[in-house]
């Protein structure tokens, strides 16, 4: 092991490399992603202190009238105890990592990836990033389907910094913006914004912000003062899914 090779490895040249291979490209929230992490030894023997996986996304935050993009870690797992990898040696570590129920689904501008980090003593730490398509829970999927049935179209989905009053485990919420394009609510609402908090496999918390379309002088006055928006919060159990359309319909009728 030459001193020159040690110097090169310390700046990442000839150091160990990491490659994570997922068994699936898409997965539903609450389920486990599986795969393997391959560590390929470099030109010298190296001490691998830690290999870890993180589930990540980005979100928007407003600061001084500017939108900044921040990264959030949703979950982290450690895969190993310290070990030594020899030159050109290939080690394979299988893994399972659960996708938390509050992971944003992959739609609109919301992207999720699994990042692999390797802590190597005295060297640049290699990383690997793998995008993964996150699918909604059955309850969220049904709720979104119902809105389509009621004549709404999904216009925008984004992750944004969570207001303090509704913030939970993560620093952001995923917001779904629907606009009425047909049906009984066309012309009554400008837009409907939905936030889903999947408490567990059987319970879904819904926060709905309705933006009523201004009608007449009184309506225009209310709109100018942001009085045309209402915030509604309610919970749906899985056994209520057969009547979820009636639930949303009742809420919308009360605020139209």
Describe the protein in words.
The chain has helices spanning 3-10, 138-149, 216-224, 244-254, and strands spanning 17-22, 26-28, 32-40, 46-63, 66-78, 83-85, 90-98, 112-120, 127-131, 133-135, 152-161, 172-180, 189-200, 203-212, 229-237. With 256 residues, the protein is of the alpha+beta class. The protein folds into two domains: 3-135, Immunoglobulin-like; 138-254, no CATH class. The strands form four sheets. Strands 4, 5, 6, 8 and 9 form a five-stranded antiparallel beta sheet that branches. Strands 11-12-13-14-15 form a five-stranded antiparallel beta sheet, with helices on one face. The longest helix has 12 residues, at 138-149.
- The sequence of SSEs as H and E is HEEEEEEEEEEHEEEEHEH
The helix fraction, in percent, is: 10-25%
**Would you identify the regions where 5 or more consecutive residues have pLDDT less than 50?**
1-14, 214-228
Quaternary structure classification:
single chain
**CATH topology name of the largest domain:** Immunoglobulin-like
The major sheet is characterized as: 5 strands, antiparallel
Number of helices: 4
**Average predicted local confidence, pLDDT:** 84
Strand content: over 45%
What is the structural class? alpha+beta
Spatial gap, N to C terminus? 75 Å
Radius of gyration from CA coordinates: 24 Å
Label the overall shape: elongated
- Tally of structural domains: 2
């Amino acid at each position: 092991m030459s001193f020159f090779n040690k110097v090169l490895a310390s700046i990442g040249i000839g150091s160990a490399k990491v490659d994570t291979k997922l068994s699936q490209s898409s997965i539903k929230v609450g389920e486990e992603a599986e795969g393997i992490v391959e560590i390929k030894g470099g030109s010298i023997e190296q001490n691998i202190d830690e290999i870890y996986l993180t589930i990540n996304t980005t979100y928007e935050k407003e600061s001084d009238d500017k939108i900044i993009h921040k990264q959030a870690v949703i979950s982290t797992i450690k895969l190993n105890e310290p070990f030594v990898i020899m030159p050109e040696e290939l080690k394979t570590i299988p893994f399972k990592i659960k996708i938390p129920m509050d992971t944003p689904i992959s739609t609109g501008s919301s992207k999720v990836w699994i990042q692999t980090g390797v802590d190597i003593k005295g060297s640049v730490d290699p990383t690997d990033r793998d995008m993964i398509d996150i699918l909604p829970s059955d309850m969220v999927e049904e709720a979104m389907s119902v809105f389509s049935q009621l004549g709404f179209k999904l216009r925008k989905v984004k992750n944004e910094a969570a207001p303090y009053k509704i913030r939970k485990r993560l620093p952001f919420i995923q917001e779904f913006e629907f606009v009425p394009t047909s049906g009984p609510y066309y012309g009554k609402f400008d837009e409907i914004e939905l936030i889903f908090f999947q408490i567990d496999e059987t319970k879904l918390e819904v926060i709905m912000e309705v933006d009523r379309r201004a009608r007449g002088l009184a309506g225009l006055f209310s709109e100018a003062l942001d009085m045309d928006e209402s915030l509604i919060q309610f919970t749906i159990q899985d056994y209520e899914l057969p009547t979820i359309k009636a639930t949303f319909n009742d809420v919308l009728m009360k605020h139209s």
